[in-house]
Inverse folding.
DNA sequence: TTGACTTCCGAAACCGATTTTGTAAACTAA
DNA sequence: TTAGTTTACAAAATCGGTTTCGGAAGTCAA
């Protein structure tokens, strides 16, 4: 009644009905050359025996896994990237409806990331990849294109014409961000950016610069710092910017994690965030609503992005030309309480800070 | 030189060397009945052709997937559970070294959770499961034991004798928590718990109650509330407790998410957390260090728990008796700044709150 | 009645590995 | 020298599906 390994096989079903196993397979795959009677009997037996086809066996013959892969880079001992967590959550939820599964792997260096992709391809564990946090020149993309292996990127690169991607309009968003800050009355605006090889970090920095230019404000290199995308990075970035002779009254941060760290430092130094110092983040993480004061941020809904990208990848796997699946989304400013008109001039700010050192 | 589907198969290697494919397989699986010369030639060819065995084909024959599964429950539109994110991160990191992969799936109801486990077993996509957030009577455990399918639980149930689990000593931890609060001078201590069907929520509640009893404080049912394990739940729980005629001066929360929400409400009501009101969480989430004030919490390192549990599961899959793999860990109190001696009596607190309603 | 078409399904090949079985050649022992 | 063992590998079976091929039975037109 059951296969030697305990579970019901197609052979069991076929024997139970008295047909060839090929016939069972054809019924299950909706072939039309099966009489209604036979179909009924087979379907009944499938239900009765609780038969599910083995995806392993099916994959072997069809060459498809019905599994998508994601390789998440991990650094040192630090915790999970909250943005990626939301993103993965969104992918998994979408896949549930699409009858696919998600394989999550980690890798601790750029080299290891590449090797992991290679291993998953060679071992045929996945049909395609979702890439996150694309770099300006992304070796993963070169590799996967060379292999002609399906993938969709979350984020673009310096030349995004030939592959499928979903991205937010980072530059426009940060131009708006600066405009918003200038509208509030800020003239000295600091920027806490991310590693320069990350594409979105560059685009947001460009947006910051162009926004300043639009407002007729002269760029000042010392107002731009670059940090790892963690709370600690935010602390350090804010520390540097506030140590300037004339510190900025507003801090535009490239992610929420950075912004939360920056907020922390500001409070530690006795500044009222949203008054003495304005801080704006980017990601729209749920936790941002629960820090003090609640973080004003650009929201891109990591979760729905995950779902959207999963669907794009399935299209690409099924043969859609990747170059036709490219989508630019907008990020919305979610105003909470960490921004406001500057309560102090940069000079007053500097004086207040000197007292607390 | 390469199989019809693009990748190198064992047949390609065999032909290249001029041996039977079974011989190649034996070399790769370290059989001893192969001459040194042949072994060398085959190994060289494997390297030259860049051959990796197809895990699909291998699985079919061996009946093993080298993949572990986790089904994460998701509710409504809410974001990812930050504890689970850390936990999954830990699992994935550990598996990287163990040459296994992790399949992450979501399910949106208890019924769906069960069905998903069933599907993954029947389709033979995983070798075992990791269960999280065990319930007092957990249907997943009944189901998997009935199926004789390997799993390890993070958390116990009302009868944890017969399966493998890793858990923290929830009750002892919360007894310590109460002791700590009493030591600070608190006499009126509120408890924000989680859904009563979650085992850890019950154990922590029992710890809370026993801790009070040890301190000779009479239990008061109105000081215990039950909420969903989200920031919103924390907000609502704190709202209820602070609305009491004589509100508690300390809030013991069953998770960090709840504690962060509770902190939020307290600040909104004008209370100084760590002075007027003490709040303690549980999970040791990284973000806890970045809220204001930094959250005092019991830390259980979700990440290392994930790694440990992955290793346990592999042992169970390989035949270890599950009942012999049970591990009780301790949680450490990480003192940050959300706790302290009560600056106000409950009466003063109530008065202060009346002003801000 | 016969040849041409459908309809429906059994039989067998196939996917790419692992494992079992069998055997020629070399080696050992008597 | 001969029988018995090893050694080292080829050949074939197998895992559980999907897909191709082909043929029996029934239908239809001439």
């Amino acid at each position: 009644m059951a296969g030697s390994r305990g579970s019901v096989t197609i052979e069991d079903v076929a024997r139970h009905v008295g047909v060839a196993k090929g016939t069972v397979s054809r019924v299950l795959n909706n072939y039309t050359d099966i009489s209604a009677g036979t179909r009924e009997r087979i379907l009944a037996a499938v239900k009765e025996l609780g038969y599910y086809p083995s995806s392993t066996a099916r994959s072997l013959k069809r060459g498809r896994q019905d599994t998508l892969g994601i390789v998440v880079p991990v650094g040192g001992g630090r915790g999970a990237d909250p943005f990626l967590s939301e993103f993965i959550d969104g992918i998994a939820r979408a896949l549930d409806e699409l009858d696919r599964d998600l394989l999550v792997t980690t890798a601790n260096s750029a080299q290891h990331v590449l090797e992991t992709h290679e291993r998953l391809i060679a071992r045929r564990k996945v049909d395609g990849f979702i890439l996150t946090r694309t770099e300006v020149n992304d070796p993963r993309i070169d590799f996967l294109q060379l292999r002609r292996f399906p993938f969709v990127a979350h984020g673009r690169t310096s030349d995004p014409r030939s592959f499928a991607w979903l991205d937010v309009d980072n530059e426009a968003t940060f131009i708006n961000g600066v405009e918003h800050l200038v509208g509030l009355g800020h003239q000295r605006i600091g920027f806490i950016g991310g590693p320069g090889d990350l594409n979105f970090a560059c685009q947001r920095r460009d947006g910051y610069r162009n926004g300043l230019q639009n407002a007729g404000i002269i760029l000042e290199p010392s107002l731009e710092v670059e940090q790892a995308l963690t709370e600690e990075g935010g602390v350090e970035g804010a520390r540097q910017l506030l140590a300037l002779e004339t510190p900025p009254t507003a801090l535009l941060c490239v992610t929420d994690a950075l912004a939360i760290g920056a907020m922390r430092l500001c409070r530690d130094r006795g500044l009222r965030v949203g008054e003495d110092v304005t801080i704006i983040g980017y990601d729209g993480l749920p936790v941002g609503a629960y820090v003090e004061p609640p973080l004003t941020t650009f929201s891109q809904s990591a979760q729905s992005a995950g779902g959207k990208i999963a669907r794009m990848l399935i299209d690409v796997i099924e043969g859609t030309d990747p170059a036709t699946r490219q989508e630019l989304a907008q990020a919305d400013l979610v105003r909470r309480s960490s921004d406001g008109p500057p309560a102090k001039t940069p000079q007053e700010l500097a004086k207040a800070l000197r007292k607390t050192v």
In short: The longest helix of chain A spans residues 82-98. DSSP finds 13 helices and twelve strands in chain A. The longest strand of chain A covers residues 67-73. Chain A touches chain B through 63 residues (CB under 8 Å).
